[in-house]
Amino acid sequence: MKFKILLALIFVNLMQAQKFYFPKTAATDSLILEKQMPGLAEQVISNLQTVKHKPENNIDFLDSLFRLQIVAKDYKKAMMTLSEYRNEFADHNMGGYKSMGYELYSLAKLAQTETKASFPNALQSVFNKKYESIDPKLIPRIGAAIEGDVNDSRKILKKALSKQQGKDSIDYNSALALCKIYLNYKTYSSIIPQASKLLESKDQEKFIIETKDLKTKYGNTLTITIVRKKENKSPLPVILASNIYAGQFDSFFGKRAAIYNYVGAVVNTRGKRNSNDENNPFEYESQDIYEVIDWISKQPWCNGKVGMMGGSYLGFSQWAAVKKLHPALKTIVPQVAVGIGIDYPSQNNVFMSYMLRWIQYVTNNKYTDELDFGNATKWDSINTKWYKSGKSFRALDTISGKPSKIFQRWLDHPGYDQYWKKMVPYKEEFAKINIPILTTTGYYDDDQIGALYYFKEHNKYNKNAEHYMTIGPYTHGGAQSFGYTYVEGNRIDPSARISIDDLAFSWFDYILKNGKKPEILKDKVNFQIMNTNTWKHVPTLDQMHTSTLKFYLQNSKNNSSVFNKPGSLSFTKQTVDFKNRDDKDTYYVVSKKDSIKTTDFIYFESEVLDKDLIMSGNLSGVFNISINKKDIDTSTLLYEIKPNGKSFWLSTHLARASYAKDNEVRQLLEPNKIQQIPIKQSIFMSKKIEKGSKLLLLVGVNKNSAWQINYGTGKDVSEETIKDSGEPLEVKWYNDSYVEIPVYED
Predict the structure, then answer these.
(1) Are the C-beta atoms of residues 471 and 441 closer than 8 Å to each other?
(2) Measuring CA to CA, which residue among 305, 310, 308, 348 is closest to residue 327?
(3) Could you tell me where the beta strands, DSSP code E, fall in 54-121?
(4) What is the pLDDT of residue 11?
(5) CB 222 within 8 A of CB 269
(6) How far apart are alpha carbons 353 and 524 in whole angstroms?
(7) CA-to-CA distance for 651 and 742, rounded, in angstroms?
(8) Staple 493 to which of 273, 284, 293, 533, CB 3.0 to 4.6 Å?
(9) Nearest-CA neighbor of 530 among 305, 350, 687, 662?
(10) Which ranges of 498-567 does DSSP label H, i.e. alpha helix?
């Protein structure tokens, strides 16, 4: 019996190691390729289900499986797997639109076989049935769900096949990738543009969609899209979005509002769609939106009430709008709002490389340059080339091959100065904002710092602010749509899997239609504690925690506890050579399957926790450091190391030391003198940390291609080059430094 088991294991291993037969001619002959792909997909499916290749995350497994089943022409199984995938992606059918292009292609193939109809006729039939049967709330998402670039998918397929030329076999990973690439091309080349035209026809039956150009008193042109549901004959409140991402998003935002029985209005910023004005992101929203709201409020389909909604840039736009508040604007729902000058294009005064990629995304043409923005390989290469070159951060746009006035203008303002302040409310201006507001953000939101900045400033300067906030385990996308089942590879609690859309429009019903206040808004701050399946509700951010725990910069191996203040003063010395651009990465090994990168960091381990600990809020504290230069960009990360040998990211903090005390005024450090650097504006998290876990704290120096490099000369960091690096940076991290962890106890 043991011998048979051994033989079986050997056979499985051989099967996993082997390559699949794939004839050379398939790479150059489309007919042979067509015949070979179903068989190849079947072999990949067999391997996908083995222990070696099956993804740990079930959603990733189902995602690959349904695609392979379509390539294998097993359309019925594929549709069942797709249904499983959607249920796993999100509860309450919130993911019912996912991969709809593949679904329509598969259903049309099945209908073609069953009815002997042509593919176009079959596609029309299944599309009409799908549109009529789908949850109406998902209708606005159909456009993006079926959208695909045929030419781009053809190029990608051609590139993948070129790697197979002269070969008569293909390994597992390449075969899996080829099947997915092939499916993209087959799907989009089969359904585009017919599916888009069918959607347009269906939308025309359901909605009145108008596009107009508005002239402002400053002589600028703004394009506005109005969407109304045909069955709604009376004037309604209008939900406005101010959108720099002109294109598919305009239709989505407009139809979403209409589906919830409002009028949807989407205005594009200057220089977008039909506007020939200069496109300067963020700079003119405040004055332009006032005029847009004024125009909307006077239209026959508007009942005089306007609300605003949207995420990221659209969240920023709402704060720009309330800098000069129009009487018709009754409420705003800023989601994951960009904190301009606060968390973007710099975070705590450290500029990010991503800003150039984003600038080109929204300014390369009148819409959005999806192909360029999505070309991660290109942008990684540009950032790496800059990093390796040692040139100044100002040279990044030249290295990209496309100099940018906007990029250079932003770099001219490293502190939070008048340039940024004029775009959104500042200090006492928050006191004048007396309309109800609902903010949504997430623990994994890239603009969490910005969203919370507005919330804190509004409540600070307006003691009677009717401002509610909802925060949970959501990404930048999730906190402006719905709670996905998996976030960063981790399964979130069922109670967190809510529809942010439903919450927002329930809020609009409450404010604009005298409805009931959303159930979840039991207090001003509403937060979900991960790993407890519960929501908590408190009046202020400070009450998200009931106490704090100081983690001192010392290791439990040499001390009774990292949570006890050290008895004698000492330091850990760190050296960073800015000249070295070929650093060998170092890692903290968590287990055989997990590790944490520690390059340019030092780390401190806590003792094993003897009880559960709920971290709720954001890190604070102070670093007592001495450096041999005039400035430093500090980076901090906090992890939970679970009993099962896996790590869980809890929080980060990145900041320029010279701006740590005041983000408006730079205060250089005095070399070789102990100085205190406060920790402010770190990432919020609320999670139960399990008994038996330990905490891992990383502190270090920011030195990578994703951000500016601060060489510490005291000059404008954007102007510094590798020639300014001088002697290696030496940091003495004193052990009376601490990171303060917020703790919640019932």
Answers:
(1) yes
(2) 305
(3) none
(4) 40
(5) yes
(6) 35
(7) 11
(8) 533
(9) 687
(10) 500-512
Calculate mean pLDDT across residues 198-227: 96
C-alpha closest to that of 453 among 576, 555, 363, 344: 344
CB 722 within 8 A of CB 579: yes
Cα 440 to Cα 43, 312, 437, 449, 607: the distances in Å are: 45, 11, 10, 12, 35
pLDDT for position 556: 80
* 712 DSSP 8-state letter: S
Task: Let me know if 592 is exposed, middle or buried by CB neighbors in 10 A (0-12, 13-18, 19+).
Answer: exposed
Instruction: Name the pTM for this structure.
Output: 0.94
Find out whether 394 and 408 touch, Cβ atoms under 8 Å.
Answer: yes
d(C-alpha 335, C-alpha 89), whole Å = 21
pLDDT score at 95 = 96
**Cβ(396)–Cβ(359) below 8 Å:** no
Residue 440 predicted with pLDDT over 60: yes
**Residues across the chain:** 746
Q: Which residues contact 63 (CB under 8 A, 6 or more apart)?
A: 85
d(CA 133, CA 125): 13
Residue 227 has a pLDDT of: 98
DSSP characters over 568-619: S--EEEEEE-TT---PPP-EEEEETTEEEE-TTEEEEEPPPPSS-EEEEEE-
The answer to whether residue 500 scores a pLDDT higher than 70 is yes
- Cα separation of 119 and 268, whole Å? 37
| d(C-alpha 508, C-alpha 437), whole Å | 10
